[in-house]
Amino acid sequence: MRAKDILGRRGEELAAEFLEDQGIRVVEQNWRCAAGELDIVAVDGDTLVVAEVKTRSSLDYGHPFEALTDRKVARLHHLAGRWAGEHSLRLPRRRLDAIAVLAPRGSEPVIEHLKGIG
């Protein structure tokens, strides 16, 4: 596995732990279909939450949230609908969140959580 992929997996695990610590129940990670992948699917009260995780080891190439383009957000909304259609979990609300994980070598990771993007 490439270093970038290892960092990404670590970031997703840290993000899932962060959400759980916030009282948000993670129900699935790395869900895939032909149209793409959802990093984290979770439940926050009566809301289905789809969280996109972006992990970086530094800010050399910009903040992780900068990778969330309008096109990416639109695709995530589509995938969230597809996930909901394939699962029996029915909730009245749906929200798309972004989680940035900055994990420099030798330092504690920093996690930022944006609720309700796009």
From TrEMBL:
This is UPF0102 protein Q9R02_00215. Transmembrane segments: none annotated. The lineage of its organism: Bacteria, Bacillati, Actinomycetota, Actinomycetes, Micrococcales. It comes from the Bacteria. Signal peptide: none annotated. It comes from Arthrobacter horti. Belongs to the UPF0102 family.
